[in-house]
Write a structure and sequence with these properties.
Layout: H1 4-9, E1 14-19, H2 24-33, E2 37-41, H3 49-61, E3 65-69, H4 75-83, E4 88-91, H5 97-107, H6 129-139, E5 141-146, H7 149-153, H8 155-159, E6 166-169, H9 171-177, H10 187-203, E7 207-208, H11 216-224, E8 227-234, H12 235-252
Parallel strand pairs: 1-2, 1-8, 2-3, 3-4, 4-5, 5-6, 7-8
Length: 254
């Protein structure tokens, strides 16, 4: 399978999903279903670092690329996620070029970054540091989340920051920054997303969008608009909506 970083760089379709339940069975099921990457969400869930490491391990061993959506753009938080074996990070609320550079520096070792050295799972528990050092400085993935109108205003500088592989719209927070959380049909929200698309296409940068509902038509719609980095829904909705759909059909039968 082609490296995730290369697929993102070349604007090739890379479909993944979101893990919010800290159970390795969920990760195994979703990885074996064929998602190219899976993001462990440590921003809006109760998943601990220990649980995240086990999820990362399972995702990796099942042939999918494990990413972590970190809780904040903090060097220690990012370093610990990477030391646990993540292939990359998705960083929330990146609103300036300075924010983007800070995230990249936290992933890479000197002289390309500022990350401190640890000998955890990623480094083969101390047995494969040199191999990992070369890999992380060239193959790790940094996705910045564009989820505030300030980020839209600074988008060209953010995307131009060295080491940023791609970006992803966070639709709820972006709409919230405009005073209308979840109101995606508002004129100002749609205009902000159009600006995002226009700038990304002008700069030939990959576009990403977190599609919340597990709707194949919506995924294909965004793919046709040029989005290539697409998180398709999340574990809880796959489970909950499938259960609900079955029960509605069964209970309505006389």
């Amino acid at each position: 399978m082609q490296e995730l970083k290369e697929k993102i760089k070349n604007n090739k379709f890379a479909i993944g999903s979101w893990i919010t339940i800290g159970d390795t069975s969920i990760a195994e099921i979703m990885a074996k279903a064929g998602f190219e990457w899976l993001a462990v969400d440590m921003e809006h869930t109760a998943i601990t670092l220990r649980e995240a490491q086990e999820l990362i391990r399972v995702i990796d061993l099942c042939g999918s690329a494990p990413l972590v959506r970190v809780s904040e753009n903090d060097p220690t938080v990012i370093k610990r996620a990477m030391d646990a074996g993540a292939h990359g990070v998705i960083v929330p609320m990146v609103n300036t070029a300075g924010d983007a550079i800070k995230a990249v520096n936290a992933v890479r070792y000197p002289p390309l970054g500022t990350r401190g050295v640890g000998l955890g799972r990623a480094q083969g528990y101390g047995l494969a540091f040199e191999k990992y050092r070369k890999w992380v400085n060239t193959k790790s993935v940094v996705i910045v989340q564009i989820e505030h109108i300030e980020a839209i205003d600074n988008l060209e500088e953010i995307l131009d920051a060295e080491g940023v592989d791609g970006s992803m719209i966070g639709p709820y927070d972006l709409s919230g920054s405009l005073g209308h959380p979840g109101e995606f049909e508002r004129k100002e929200v749609k205009e902000a997303i159009r600006r995002y698309e226009k700038i990304c296409k002008k700069m030939n940068k990959p576009m990403g969008f977190h599609i919340i509902q597990p709707d194949p038509k919506k995924i294909l719609k965004y793919k046709s608009r040029g989005y290539s980095f697409l998180p398709a829904s999340l574990d809880t909705l796959y489970l909950g909506l499938s259960c609900k759909a079955l029960l509605e059909k069964v209970k309505t039968k006389k």
